[in-house]
Amino acid sequence: MLSMLFPNKCVACGKIIDEGISVCEDCGKSLYRIDRQCCKYCGRDILPCGCMGEKNKFRRNISVFRYDGSAGKIVKRYKMGKITQISVYICQELSMLINEEYSDIDFDCMTYVPMSRIKKLFCGFDHAEMIAKGISQKLGLKNTALLKRKFSFKSQKSSKTKYNREKNIRGKFMVVKEVKDKTILIIDDVMTTGSTLNECAKVLKAAGAADVFCATFALTYKK
Ligand SMILES: [Zn+2]
Ligand SMILES: [Zn+2]
After folding, report:
1. Alpha helices, H only, the chain
2. Which of 14, 83, 97, 112 could bridge across to 132 with cysteines, CB 3.0–4.6 Å?
């Protein structure tokens, strides 16, 4: 039987669980789905959200879960191991949310926040690219690599504050395809301060994109 060879595991902790569910009972207790009554710009459901509102370069972000708790564990396991079951789960949850929240938007294409080539070599795969491909299949929306990360030795992890992240990420992306007058959906696994997505939206708009929306699996909140 297939299920004996590939037992169904909790996407957050890896424990073997019954078929048909994705998260075990314990992990389910700390999986916080974001309330749909949330900030219409950044997608956080605790106000004040601390985002720049209309000044964000993207029109809107939507996220499925708060990063705290099990969603963070899911993202970390996915990044470590390229586990197909987890990417299927992330794509499923995110596709459903996109279908619900962005049903009235006519996207021309979708793209993702790319890793640097060196990081991709190191990790073995580009997390956001793989999610975007899965979502593209589900939604029937074309996924195109519109952005490229410029070469840099610095890691963004070193900066915790929003100001520093903004400064570090500035000028790090370039647009590599025609985007003029296009309405674009950017996919990423996690939105933290929003600096990266803002920078991506900024360069896309500078290259002529009509509008930019974001969809991310998990969203961090200020402590
Ligand atoms: Zn679990
Ligand atoms: Zn907000």
Report:
1. 2-5, 25-29, 70-81, 84-101, 117-123, 127-139, 162-169, 195-206
2. 112
Query: Ligand 1 mean position to 156 CA, how many Å?
Result: 29
- The residues placing their C-beta within 5 Å of ligand 1, an ion, are 10, 12-13, 15, 24, 27
Q: What contacts 134, CB < 8 A, 6 or more positions away?
A: 87, 88, 90, 91, 95
pTM of the model: 0.91
Please tell me the distance between residue 83's alpha carbon and the centre of ligand 1 in angstroms: 15
Residue type at 75 in one-letter notation = V
Residues of the chain with pLDDT under 50: none
Q: How far is the centre of ligand 2, averaged over its atoms, from the C-alpha of 43 (Å)?
A: 6
Q: In this structure, which topology does domain 35-219 adopt according to CATH? A: Rossmann fold (3.40.50)
Nearest C-alpha neighbor of 149 from the set 125, 126, 115: 115
pLDDT digits (tens, 9 = 90+) for 166-211: 777 788 899 999 999 999 999 999 999 999 999 999 999 999 999 9
Contact between residue 173 and residue 150 where contact means Cβ atoms under 8 Å apart: yes
Give the residue among 145, 192, 132, 136 at the shortest CA–CA distance from 173: 145
3-state secondary structure of 172: coil
The residues spanned by each domain of the chain are 35-219
